[in-house]
Design brief:
The complex is a heterodimer.
Chain A lengths: L6 H11 L6 H22 L25
Helix pairs in contact in A: 1-2
Chain B lengths: L2 H10 L4 H19 L2 E4 L1 H16 L11 E5 L27 H8 L3 E6 L11 E2 L3 E2 L1 E2 L2 E5 L5 H8 L5 E6 L5 H7 L2 E4 L19 E6 L2 H11 L18 H4 L8 E4 L2 H4 L3 H14 L4 E2 L4 H19 L1 H6 L9 H8 L3 H21 L5 E5 L12 E4 L2 E4 H4 L5 H6 L3 E6 L9 E6 L5 H13 L11
Parallel strand pairs in B: 2-3, 2-8, 11-12, 11-13
Antiparallel strand pairs in B: 1-3, 4-5, 6-7, 8-10, 9-10, 9-16, 13-17, 14-15, 16-17
Helix pairs in contact in B: 2-3, 5-6, 11-13, 11-14
Classes of the chains: A mainly alpha, B alpha+beta.
Chain lengths: ~70, ~450
């Protein structure tokens, strides 16, 4: 599969930015995956998110206390 | 002998734990050259654990719930003295684990006997267990076909009658896909139910662990034995155990059960629809239910998986990409390059999505859909067709599982047998609201009891 023309330069530039060295064959293969990911990300573009819709929580500073303060 | 009978025979003394252990080890020796489910065997440890059970019985002690049950674990679980491969070549350089994973510790305390570690897709990124480093795990029902993944060894070992219970992990379907393709029972618990400490991670924000088994009773007993809080696993949200095995035997009577339509029907082949219809009839389910935003959820799960999974391995991807699995290394790299907006959007969507999914369960106790769109493809398949649409074969295995695990809902998989797949199984997902594993297991128990779901002898 031929990757879209604008994906390959992005893949090469972004990879260089995070210290990944891609030869031409690897860059092409990654671009093919990345082009599929672009299509998948487009599906999510349709999600109606409001400004107050926060991230699903991951970080918690501490467990909720079992007892209320006296 | 299925595991409930095995456990009963050991409990009464009709069979020793050592006899059960030796039988499992012999079966592995006789069959694994063809299946390739195991990457390590722990025979010495298994015999010692079995002998300890027999010694307890000879002293007149009460035996725990899984006394003498042989089991094996996906090779991303720490086993004391064994290198935790996580399906990779790179991890061979790690020192052996210094202690068992928490779930292995809990199963040992429940009397189960560990016989080995099982093959998987490298770092759990795959649905086929076509592992280049360790060879493909073959489907016991047709050795030319995949076992599913990433817990392919876990599904195949149960289907090949090498071990009646195994542990797997499930981020996007990795317990449910091999359960479906190998024709065994599986349980992906609620996200946050079971401790993941001592297992090699794939995607921290979606990883689950759970059992596969040859019967619903053993699935539920194993699940119960592994429950409990773990303050040292930030992803373990359970504050106490909620045993399910006793409730499981109540069956599905009184449950409000629906059948998922829309996305889940459109992406199921006729054979997959057939088994869902059989399960629905057996459970008295008539109403079609639409799951919210399934396609978006799958997209969001895909983006988070690729990004988090890639980030975990950045250092090795920089230094030694040639040592990664050729089937997934490009996906790991691609995931690392995603714009931040995609991942943040996916995490924001997940919160909204969770609320919609939980609202759906105000009206339903259990929802049904197929676990995979098709039965097991041949090893090496690149493409498959689903209702006239061509899909890349390996990622397509997760089409029906990804939206469910992204919500964190518990799912039991029932092994079922379509009439048009030449004897190959397709599983049915029994989905419940978070923290309601017992409801999914009750429906599973009914399907087993009425005889529409269960294991069949493989080709070995």
């Amino acid at each position: 599969m031929q990757a879209p023309i604008d994906v390959l330069p992005y893949v090469k530039a972004a990879a260089q930015l995070i210290g990944l060295t891609l030869d031409d064959a690897r860059a092409q293969a990654v671009s093919e995956h990345f082009a599929r990911t672009v299509a998948i990300a487009t599906v999510l573009e349709g999600a109606p998110l409001a400004p107050h819709d926060e991230l699903a929580e991951i970080y918690r500073p501490a467990p909720f206390p079992a007892e209320d303060p006296q | 002998m299925k595991s409930p009978e095995l456990l009963a025979a050991i409990a009464t003394g009709d069979l020793s734990a050592r006899q059960a252990c030796d039988a499992a080890l012999a079966r592995i020796e006789a069959t694994d050259g063809r299946v390739n489910a195991f990457t390590d065997r722990t025979a010495s440890r298994a015999r010692a654990e079995a002998d300890a059970i027999d010694a307890r019985r000879s002293r007149g002690e009460a035996l725990p719930s899984l006394a003498g049950l042989p089991y094996a674990v996906k090779n991303l679980f720490d086993i004391e003295g064994v290198v935790t491969l996580a399906g990779s070549k790179i991890n061979r350089e790690l020192p052996p684990a210094r202690e068992d994973a928490v779930l292995v510790q809990r199963l040992r305390a429940a009397g189960a006997v560990l016989v080995g570690a099982l093959n998987m897709d490298e770092y759990a990124y795959g649905f086929s267990t076509e592992n280049t480093h360790y060879g493909p795990t073959r489907n016991p029902h047709d050795l030319t076909r995949i076992s599913g993944g990433s817990s392919g060894g876990s599904g195949a070992a149960v289907a090949a009658l090498q071990a009646p219970m195994t542990l797997g992990s499930d981020t996007n379907g990795s317990i449910r896909v091999p359960s479906s393709l190998c024709g065994v029972w599986g349980l992906k618990p609620t996200f946050g139910r079971l401790s993941r400490r001592g297992s090699y991670p794939f995607v921290h924000s979606i990883d689950h662990l759970g059992p596969l088994a040859d019967s619903v009773d053993t699935l539920a007993l194993s699940y119960d034995a592994m429950q409990g809080p773990d303050a040292l696993d930030p992803g373990c949200h359970a504050v106490r155990a909620q045993p399910a095995a006793a409730q499981t035997r109540r069956g599905a009577q009184g449950l409000r059960i629906g059948v998922l339509g829309g996305y889940f029907n459109e992406l199921a082949t006729p054979a997959a629809r057939e088994v869902v219809a059989v399960a629905a009839r057996a459970l008295g389910a008539r109403d079609e239910v639409i799951w919210p935003d399934a396609a978006m959820a799958r997209a969001a799960a895909f983006l988070i998986t690729a990004s988090e999974g890639g980030s975990l391995h950045l250092d090795d991807l920089r230094k030694r990409p040639q040592d990664f699995e050729p089937l997934s290394v490009d996906r790991f790299i691609s995931g690392l390059l995603q714009p931040a907006d995609w991942v943040i959007r996916a995490q924001r969507f997940r919160r909204v999505y969770r609320d919609k999914v939980n609202a759906l369960f105000a009206r339903w106790d259990v929802l049904l859909c197929a676990a995979t769109p098709v039965s097991a493809p041949e090893i090496g398949s690149e493409w498959l067709e689903i209702n006239g649409q061509r899909h890349p074969s390996r990622p397509a295995m997760g089409l029906l599982t990804q939206p469910i695990s992204f919500a964190g809902c518990p799912v039991a998989v029932a092994p079922m047998w379509p009439s048009s797949t030449s004897g190959m199984p397709i599983g049915v997902q029994l989905i419940a609201a978070p923290w309601n594993e017992h409801l999914a297991l009750r429906a599973a128990h009914t399907l087993e009891k009425v005889g529409v779901a269960g294991l069949k002898k493989g080709a070995l």
